Amino acid sequence: xxxxxxYIFFCLICITEQSFAEIRLPRLISDGMVxxxxxxxxVWGWAKKGExxxxxxxxxxxxxxxxxxxxxxxxxxxxxxxxPYEMIITGENQLKIKDILIGEVWVCSGQSNMVLxxxxxxxxxxxxxxxxxxxxxxxFLVPMRYDFNQSHEDFASGRWEAATPENxxxxxxxxxxxxxxxxxxxxxxxxxxxxxxxxxxxEAWISEEALKAFPHHLxxxxxxxxxxxxxxxxxxxxxxxxxxxxxxxxxxxxxxGVQKWFEPAYDASSWQRMQLPNxxxxxxxxNTNGVVWxxxxxxVPELMAGKKAKFFMGRIVDSxxxxxxxxxxxxxxxxxxxxxxxxxxxVLKAGKNxxxxxxxxxxxxxxxxxxxxxxxxxxxxxxxxxGEWQYKLGTAAEPxxxxxxxxxxxxxxxxxMIAPLINYSIKGVIWYQGESSTNNPGEYHQLFSTMIKDWRxxxxxxxxxxxxxxxxxxxxxxxxxxxxxxxxxxxxxxQTLSLPQTGMAVAIDLGEWNDIHPLNKEYVxxxxxxxxxKIAYQDKNxxxxxxxxxxxxxxxxxxxxxxxxxxxxxxxxxxxxxxxxAIAGADKKFVWAKARIKRxxxxxxxxxxxxxxxxRYAWADNPDTANLFNKxxxxxxxxxxxxN
Length: 644
Hints:
- There is one protein chain.
- By secondary structure, the protein is of the alpha+beta class.
- The protein has 10 helices and 35 strands.
- A hairpin with a 2-residue loop joins β31 and β32.
C-alpha cells in the first residue's frame, strides 16, 4: 500500500511537470488576432524554465528560450497590411495560431460611452447593422478585472471576433464606427482592443508608479490593497443590500395579496393618476423611495391582436418589472439601459389590454425619463403609451446605502486590464471618458496627462497617437450663463492637446439632455477617425477639428476672438445668429452676448457692457444652442478667456 501511494505521488509530479512544460500564450495571441503592420512585434508566453522555443512566421523562424521564471519573448518584424497568416510556436509541444491579419491595432478605452455596444444602438442604425459583414475589422473584448496589489500578465478570458452578423452587437459602437471609417479609407485590417469599464474615473487607469504625483489617490490605493478591508466592506454592503430588498419584497402590498397587482382582473379603480413619463416626485409623490406600481389600460386594434410586438418603455429609474395582460415581459435592474422588451405572440388581444410596471427606486427621484420612446409596435402599427397612468405605492423604504465600486478606485484597472496589453504593439489609443471625473474637474488635466504619458512610457513605442472625445452635452439647458463642472472638464480635456500626438473629437452637438449615453456614436467615431487620419496617418489635407480658441483682442466695446482649425472658414450652423456666447465686464458677471463672424473671426459684444474683459462660449453642462462650426461641419470647442 505504501509503495502504491508513492507511485501515485510520483505520477502526479510527472503530470504536473509535464503541464508546466507546455508552451502557453497570452489570450491576445490567438486565432484571428490583428497585428500591427510595419513594426517590431513582440510575441511572448510561458514555458518550462530553459525550454527552447521556435517561432515560425511569414516563412522565417525565430528562436529563444524560457528564462528562470519560465517566461519567453520573440521579437520579429511585421510586413505591410495583409493576411491571413499562420504562426507556429514549437517547444516541447506545438501551437498553431490561424487566421492572423496584419493591419492597424487600436486600444479603445474609457468608461461607459466606450463600453456601449452596437446592441444599444441597433434601432438607430438598423440598416447599417443589417449590412455589416466585415471580417477584416476585429475586436478583442478585455474582461473587467481590477487588482490593487499587482499588475497582471494575462486575461482570464477573451478572444478575437470579426465584425460579422454573429458578433457585431458586442462591438463598442464608438470603436466600430471609428474602425469602419478608417477601413473604408485605407483598406487595411483594423484590430480593436476594447478595454473599458462603465463609471470609471481616470485615476483607475493609471499605474501605481505614475500615481505617486497624486498622494491623496495613492493613499486610497494603499487602503484598498488590504484585502481583509475590502472583503469586510463587500460583506457588509452585501448584507445591507440583501436585507433592503428582502424587506422591500416582504412589505410590497402589490405582491402580498391573493390577487397580485399585475394581474388583469385586479381592481385598480381606486388608484391615483399621473402623467407619464415623469419623475413621481414631480407629480406629487414626494420624497419616496421603495416600490411604486403603474398601470395603464390600452385598446388594441384587431390588426395588432395576437402578433409579436416590440415594447418600448423608455428609461426607468431605477429598476422595473413589466407585465402585459398579466404576463411578465421583461426586467432591468438599473436606470441606464433603455427598456426594449418583446411581447410574445398571442399576448395582445383585440380590445382592452392591461400594462403594469413595478418600479423600484433605490434613492433620489424615481420614475420615467422624458423624451424617450414609450410605445408598442407591430410593424408599422403603434400604440402610444405616454399620457395618463394609474399608480399606487406598494411600499416606501429608506434610501438604499450606496455600494462601493472598487473598480473605480485608483490603479486597479490599470493592473487588471492595461498591464497585460503593454507588450502588444499598437498604432494608438482612442479614449472616451470624463463623465465620472466631473465632480473634480480641477485635477483632471494633470491626471489625464499623467495617464497618457504613463501609457506611452509603458508601451515604449514613443508618442503614439492618443485620441479622445470631449464630453458631449448633457442635462437640462440653462436659461442664463452659469458655472459648470462639465464645462470645466471639457476645458481640461482641451488643455490636454498640449501633449504631442493628441487629438480631440468635440461632441457638444451629439449629446442628449436626458441620457448620459447618447446614441449618436457614428459621428463620435467619424470625428475620432478624422483625428486619426491627421495625426496617425499624417494626411495633411484632412480637416480633423472644429474651431479652437486661439486668442482674444479687445477693441472698444467688442472682443475679437481668433481661432485655430477654422478649416475652409467659420459658419453659423443652420444659419441665423451665433448663440451661446457670454460676455463680462469688470464685475465678472457674465450675460448673454451678441456675436457675428467677420473675416473668419468672431466679434462678441453686449451694448450694456462698455469695457468687456472676458468671453465664454458654450460654457454649460448642455450648450444645446451652440452653433459655431467650420465649413467642414465640425463644431467649435467650448472655451473661456477668463482662465487663459
